[in-house]
Each structure stands twice: as structure tokens, then as C-alpha cells.
Amino acid sequence: MKLRRKILLAIILLVFIPVIALGGVSYYSFSEAMEKKSNDFYWISLLETDRKLKFALNEITTISNSAITQQSVQQMLKQPDYAVTYDRRQEINNLINHPMIASFAFYSNDQLIYHTDGGMELAELRRQDWYEAVVKAEGRPVWVGPGENGSASSGAPVLIQSRVIKDYYSLEDIGTAVIYVKPDLLDQVFWEAATLKQGDILLVNKQGHIVFTKSGEHIGERTEFPFLSDSYTNGKGYYVDPYLDEKSLITYSPSHNKEWFLVAITPSKLISAESVSIRNLALILGLISLLSAFLFDRFFVRRMVRSIISAVNGMKRVKQGIFVPIPSHHAAEDETDLLIDGFNRMSSQIHELIGQVEMEQARKKEAELQALVAQINPHFIYNSLESINSMAVLQGNKDISKMVVSLGKLLRISISEHHELIPLHMELEHVQHYMRIQKFRFEEKFEYGIELPDSLKHYVTQKLIVQPIVENALYHGIEPMEDSGYISIKVSEDHEDIVIDVEDNGPGFDPETLIKLWNTDQGQLKKYRENGVGLKNVHERLRIRFGSRYGLMICSSPGHGSLIRIRIPKILT
């Protein structure tokens, strides 16, 4: 990953993400707090509503408690032939008298005895879903809301209180009382209940039917609240769940009536509306921090990274040997500008130092080569060889004469001064004279061949590079052989280079022997010479003269001879 991207990512991680995280945590915490406050608010509202509901229902219960124990009601239910006169009717009506009671009816064990404003027959009463609960209550009042008794769907909702009437003395069941209460009683109770805007309070029975609602909607419909199940142990609480396809906060509490629950419904969007400002503020701060990160990247990081990239590119060029100063468009103002300025000065100094080292190395190698060449006094050698040749001619020994002539020409090339680069044909002529001398010594021990195309004769090369290779091939490859050996010298061209292959059919050698020979080659093999120019010396001389891509390549394996390839550039005289 690029440095600029890393810095931008670091800024985003250190600024943008913490701001968003802080905003998110604040929004979540505030939403939780608002949800808790809303629940507390509704919890108090539900308790107050249930208290008012209990008070309102107890008024009706008190009236019914008093009425069913009166002698007129007891006699009417125990005596089937009891005549209900006008005075008795007025007495009974006065017993059950309340502004919220719409009508009532008394049933004996056999029939409908008394009613006001209509009343269902006993058989129909016993078919009602809630009648069984009345029987099981054994005289305790049972309340049946508009959503339970079916009156809400008929358009004339009523709240029903029904109870079994027992004999005042024997406590035997003598009948049933049914009181129809106006829904206004529930309206008054629920209307005073505090709710948020668009919120609602429900009265729900254990079967999930909505007994009554503050809004007056959905009465009689069935719902699926989890707290209505028998496995639900928490009697009161709150949770968030969809209600009528809208996510809502649902607060519930059991009513004083064991068959009912009070439920407050609040759309979650109302609660979250209070925390929307915090969410929006967090988003705005996040966008501002992100914009700040990009502006910081644009006006600061970009310039800093550009300076660093320029320095890195400059280092790459220095590694390749190219010393070009990095351009600077303004004076040093901060550390990045000082970095460029310091790099330019360092690069210039390195360039100068490398130049000095190269000059010193060249002088050192030149001195070494000159010292090598100057080991023998040329005039003394030439004069001595001329004397030996003259004596051999006078005595008629032609072999000695030929050998001395070849040695003279060999030495003339070897110790010639001020000519480090010589034509290829002269270098191979030097090798030929060397091979002629060795033939006198080894006789029929080996043969040799030299191939030099005419097109390559006049290209120059470093002198004394082929003869040391041939010498190593002769002493290490041919001499140990029992059979006759052969040394081949071939010159060819390879694009812009010249390749000289020296190949022998000797026993070859393994990599370990090559390493040993390479390392000891400069150690002066005293068996064959006191001062020689070995493989490693030739390779180093070629690299110094022509560059690192030129030098020797050695290929050999036991039993397959050896091939040494010399690579030099094409240079004309």
C-alpha cells in the first residue's frame, strides 16, 4: 500500500471512525435513555389507569353486591310464581341505579325473571362464551368487556358484569345477575390516561382479545403478545416489537382483574425522534472529519509524500549509478524540503567519492599490470634470446632456433608497454607461439586448433586473456591424460559481443575442484610457474576493463572435458 494511502487511512481511523463511533454510542445511549424514560412514563400511566379502572368497576360491584342480597331480589328468584308488581319493579330499579348502568337482568335457575330494556333468554345466556367463567366464579363478579362479549362488532358496545346469585341463608345458587354498563365508563377511565402523541392504551384479556382501547380502534381483534403466554414469567415490563406492522415500544402491566392486562403502545419513531438531532449531528461531524481528512491529504500529505517519493526515486537512480539531483522549486521551509536538499548534497558527494575511488582503483590496477609487465627487463630478454638463436643457427639446431623465435615473439607481446588493448589476431598469434613452445615439450601429447573469422580479426581485446586459459587447459586437462588431448580455440560473435571458447577433451572437474582451483589460482602453482596470470586474474581484468557483464564462464563435469568462454565487447581499432 502506498504511503499516502496509509496516512489517509490512519487519519480516517484516528478521526473519522472515532467521531462516528462516538456519535453512534451517543445516539444509542440517548435512544436507550428515551426508551427507558418512555417506559417509566407509561408504567406510571398504566398504574394510574388501572387504579381508576378498579375504582370505576368497584362502584358497579358495590351496587350489585347490595342488590343481590336484598329480600325482594332473593324472593323473586326463589319463588317462580313471585309477582313483580309496579312497586316491586320500582324497588328493584332503585337498587341497581347508576348513571353508567344501561340495563340489567335477573335469571332464576330456570328462566329470565326480570330485565330492563331487553334481555336475552336463559338458554342464550348459557351459550355465551363467558358464562362458564361466571359459573366457576361462584358468586364473584365477572367482567366481560366490549371486545369479549361481541357487542363492539355489533355497533352497540357495552361492558357486562355477571355473577351467580346465592341464597342469603343457605348459599345455594338461586340465579344469575347480568348488568350492562355503558362503555362511557371505560372511556372516562382511558381518556384520562396519559399517552404520547399517536400512542395508545389497550385493555387485553389472556386470550389475546382487545377488550378496549383508548383510541376506540381494533376493539375485539386478536393480538399475539408474548407476555400472554403461560410460559412468560415476567408479570410486567416492556420490549420493542412490531405492532400493526409498525415497530413500537410495548409496555404492559397486569390489571387488578386477573383476566386482563393493560398495554401501552408507542411507535418507536416517536421515541427516536428525540434522538434524531444527535444522530444528525454525529453524521455531520463525521462528514466534516472525513472532509478534513481529505483536505489534510490534499494540502499537506500529498506534498510531504511527493517529497519522500522524489527522494526514493533519487535513491533508486543512485543505486543504478545515475546521480541526478532532485529538482526543488522553492527554498527549504520544512523537514521535507530539507530532506530533498540533504539528499542532493549527499548524492553529489557520493558521486564525487565514487569517481575518486574508480580513479584510484584504475590507477591501482594499472600499476599492478605495469608491475606485472615490468618484472622482466625487455632489452635484456631480447638480447639474450637473439644470442641463443644465433648460437643455435651456427650449430645447425633448427628446433632450438624455432623455439627461441616463438619465445621471443611470445615475450614481445607479453611485456610490450603502453598497449593494453591489442587486435584479436595478435592475441591469438601470441597463443599460437605459446602452443608451439609447448609442443616441443609435450611432443605428440596434444593437438590444437585456432579458428578466427576474418571479419573479427581487427576487433581489439585486453591482451593476455586467452593464453592463461590455454595454459590451465594444458596443465590441468591435457597433461594428466594417458591418451592424446585436443585444445580448441574458436572465436565467434554474439550480437554486440565477441565470444572466445577454449575447449579441451580432458577429464574435466567437479564444482568443488573448480572452487579450489579458482581460489588457489592466485596462490601461484609452483609446479608449473612462479608468476602466472590465472583464471581469476583474467576474469577480474576483463571486468575492470569492460564492465561487470564481461568476463569468464566455466562449464565442466567429470569425464566430459571443459569449456571456458570469454566474453568481450566489439571494439574496433
UniProtKB/TrEMBL annotation:
Q: Name one GO molecular function term.
A: ATP binding
Q: Which UniProt keywords apply?
A: ATP-binding, Cell membrane, Kinase, Membrane, Nucleotide-binding, Phosphoprotein, Transferase, Transmembrane, Transmembrane helix, Two-component regulatory system
- Would the keyword Translocase turn up in this protein's UniProt record? no
Question: Which cell locations does it reside in?
Answer: Cell membrane
Q: Does the keyword Nucleotide-binding apply?
A: yes
Instruction: Provide the E.C. number(s) assigned to this enzyme.
Output: 2.7.13.3
| Main localization (coarse) | membrane
Stretches assigned to the Histidine kinase domain: 466-572
**Class in the EC hierarchy, top level:** transferase
SUPFAM superfamilies, from UniProt? Answer: ATPase domain of HSP90 chaperone/DNA topoisomerase II/histidine kinase (SSF55874)
Q: Name one GO cellular component term.
A: plasma membrane
- Give every HAMP domain span: 302-355
Q: Which reaction does it catalyse?
A: ATP + protein L-histidine = ADP + protein N-phospho-L-histidine
Bilayer topology annotation: Multi-pass membrane protein
Q: Which domain of life is it from?
A: Bacteria
Q: What is this protein called?
A: histidine kinase
